[in-house]
Fold this sequence. Notes:
Blueprint: E1 3-6, E2 9-12, E3 17-23, E4 33-38, E5 44-50, E6 57-59, E7 67-72, E8 77-82, E9 91-97, E10 100-101, E11 105-110
Amino acid sequence: xxxxxxxxxxxxxxxxxxxxxxxxxxxxxxxxxxxxxxxxxxxxxxxxxxxxxxxxxxxxxxxxxxxxxxxxxxxxxxxxxxxxxxxxxxxxxxxxxxxxxxxxxxxxxxx
Length: 111
């Protein structure tokens, strides 16, 4: 499974971004997916996860109520809608499927 993340960029605090992660394999539809992020100087941390049907989601406490993870199995794509962004959301965001990681997309939130 290969994962291609996109949608990162520079945004002001309070703004929004939508990340996408496309898979090249149909096996995507049978696996849970997740988003992680690595803030500058920190370890990679869990952000959000979604089961393969898309009916169950889980979020890190720091993003609850602001971020929404979703997936479109027909397009082999998982999304992360990020609203009310804060400077502390800055980091490289990675999508994950089992033991496979995407290359990361940089999100920078200015104050």
